[in-house]
Design goal:
The structure is a homodimer. By secondary structure, chain A is mostly helical. Chain A folds into two domains: 34 residues, Arc Repressor Mutant, subunit A (Orthogonal Bundle); 120 residues, Orthogonal Bundle (Tetracycline Repressor, domain 2). Chain A has nine helices and no strands. Chain A is elongated and about 65 Å long. Chain A starts with a helix and ends in a 6-residue tail after the last helix. The interface between A and B is large, with 54 and 54 residues. Chains A, B: This is TetR/AcrR family transcriptional regulator. Chains A, B: Keywords: DNA-binding, Transcription, Transcription regulation.
C-alpha cells in the first residue's frame, strides 16, 4: 500500500497500474491482485488505512458549530496530500467499477451517514433543527453541495464556502411565515 | 460520434478507445484525435449533441412546481439510455482529466447554473423564496443531493426522492421562529 501511494505521487493515479505497484513493492503482480482485484479497491484500502483524524461529531450542544467543525476537518483533509487526489481518483474509479462503489458505500459512506443522522437527531430533539426536517436526507443535503464542488465544478472548497452552505441550508429556500 | 455511441453501447464506456471509434467509423485514428483529444471530450460532445429535451425552467409562478418539473425531466433523462451511463462516464473522466472538467463546466454546468439562479431570483422577488437565501449557492444546493446519489451512493433517483429533497430544502434545517 505504501508502494502504491509512493508510486501514485510520482506518476499520478491515472497511470498507476497494479503491475507498477508490484514492481515497486518487489513482488509478483499476482500477489498484488490476490489482495486487490482493481485499482479502485487499492485506492479505497489506502484511503481507509491512512491515519487521518477521525471524522466524528462532537456534541457541544450547538449543532451549527459542531457541523461546521466536522466539515472543516473533512475539507482540510481533502486539501492535504494525498487525501484529495486519492479520494478523487477513488470516486473516478467508482464511476465505472460498481464493486468499488459498493465497497466505498459500505465501508465509508454508510458509517459516516449513520453518525451524521445520529448527531442531527439529537439536535432535532433539542429543538435546534426543524421538527419537519427529513433526517434521512441529511447526508445528501449536507454533503451534496460539497461533492458537487469537489467532483463537478472543481472549485476549491474553502471554509467560507462551508459557512455559506451551512447558512443557506439552515435558512432553507422557503420563506419564513 | 454515432460510431462512438454505438460502440459504447456494445463494449461499455470504460473499454471504449479512440482507436476503436476510428475503426468503427472507418477512418484513421488521427482523424478522430484531431476532433477529440480525449475520450472525455468525445463523451461531452456526444452528450451535448444528443437531441434531448431542453432543460429550461418554466415560470408558472409556482417555484416548487417549476423546480420539481425541471428536476423530474433531468432525472428521467438520466434514466433513458444512453444519457445516464454517458454522463456518468463523462464525470468519471472529468476526475482525472482537468481539460474535460473545464469544458463540462463551461459548456453545460455554467449555463444550467445561470438559468437556475435567474428562475430563483424571480421567485425570491415574488416572495416564494426566503429573502435571506444565498442565491449564488442554489445550483450546489439543489443539484448537490442529486449528484451525491448519482455519483456516490449510486441509489436510483426516483421522483419520490426529488420530492423529499425539495421539501427538505424548502423547510431548511433551522427551526422556524
Amino acid at each position: 500500500m505504501r508502494a502504491a501511494l509512493d508510486l501514485a505521487r510520482e506518476v499520478g493515479y491515472v497511470k498507476l497500474s497494479i503491475e507498477g505497484v508490484a514492481v515497486r513493492a518487489g513482488v509478483g503482480k499476482h500477489t498484488v491482485y490476490r489482495r486487490w482485484d482493481s485499482k479502485g479497491q487499492l485506492f479505497l484500502d489506502s484511503l481507509l488505512s491512512l491515519n487521518g483524524p477521525v471524522l466524528d461529531y462532537r456534541d457541544t450542544g450547538d449543532i451549527k458549530a459542531d457541523l461546521r467543525r466536522q466539515i472543516y476537518a473533512a475539507v482540510d483533509l481533502l486539501g492535504t496530500p494525498p487525501w484529495g487526489p486519492l479520494y478523487q481518483a477513488l470516486l473516478g474509479e467508482a464511476q465505472h467499477d460498481p464493486a468499488v462503489s459498493v465497497s466505498l458505500n459500505e465501508r465509508f459512506i454508510r458509517p459516516q451517514t449513520e453518525k451524521t443522522v445520529a448527531r442531527l437527531r439529537a439536535a432535532q430533539e433539542q429543538g435546534q433543527v426543524s421538527p419537519d426536517f427529513d433526517l434521512d436526507l441529511v447526508m445528501s443535503i449536507l454533503s451534496g453541495p460539497l461533492y458537487f464542488q469537489f467532483l463537478v465544478t472543481r472549485e476549491p472548497i474553502t471554509h467560507a464556502y462551508v459557512d455559506r452552505v451551512l447558512e443557506a441550508l439552515f435558512t432553507g429556500l422557503g420563506p419564513r411565515p
